[in-house]
């Protein structure tokens, strides 16, 4: 990750996250209104996550690498956000205490995504919101991914989803209010521009193995416990 510090810290990369956050806030405004009393948590925030660009509310960020980020990426982090070292499987918040929880491009990398979704559901208020941005594959690409994962036993990204699969998992805990496919911001992001170069490696990975990923966005409400 240190090797990628220059790219992560670049103006282009940070501006992309900022614009992506503005896109989300504009979308979210159709359903809710964030005020200064809101408690907002970003799960798997990294150093430069969306929470850094949300000006209203009390911001929290949790990530298992927060200590590392504070040491090497402290200049990217927002002094008004409270950063916590921890995992989504065990959130240090009381039941029904948060107004909004954000997870962007992180659920695919956790140890237990069902436990993470359960924890997020636990800490969100009954009238609160969950925003999930996640990479999805085609059905063929997902099948190939699972085959490769089972053969290798270990992978940097342990979980793969199709749109159908992630909606099914999210629906176990939340009422899906809205959903959107990949935005132009993501389609032409700095990282996508790099991986979309036509190389032999990319041809094999994306076209033969179907491992090209696309972002999918879900906005949901917590299902109240009876």
Description of the molecule:
There is one protein chain. This protein has helices spanning 5-8, 11-28, 66-72, 113-123, 139-152, 163-171, 184-187, 190-195, 200-208; strands at 39-43, 58-63, 81-85, 98-104, 124-136, 174-180, 214-222. A 7-stranded mixed beta sheet has the order 3-2-1-4-5-7-6. It has 9 helices and 7 strands; from the N terminus they run ααββαββαβααβαααβ. Strand 4, helix 4 (113-123) and strand 5 form a beta-alpha-beta unit. The protein has 226 residues and is of the alpha/beta class. The protein has one domain: Rossmann fold, CATH 3.40.50.150.
Oligomer: single chain
Strand ordering within the main sheet: 3-2-1-4-5-7-6
Would you identify the CATH architecture? Answer: 3-Layer(aba) Sandwich
Give the helix proportion (percent range): 25-40%
Give descriptors for this structure.
single chain, seven-stranded mixed β-sheet, alpha/beta, 23% strand, Rossmann fold, 226 residues
Summarize the structure.
The chain is 36% helix and 23% strand. By secondary structure, it is α/β, with parallel strands linked by helices.
Could you give the topology of this structure?
Layout: H1 5-8, H2 11-28, E1 39-43, E2 58-63, H3 66-72, E3 81-85, E4 98-104, H4 113-123, E5 124-136, H5 139-152, H6 163-171, E6 174-180, H7 184-187, H8 190-195, H9 200-208, E7 214-222
Parallel strand pairs: 1-2, 1-4, 2-3, 4-5
Antiparallel strand pairs: 5-7, 6-7
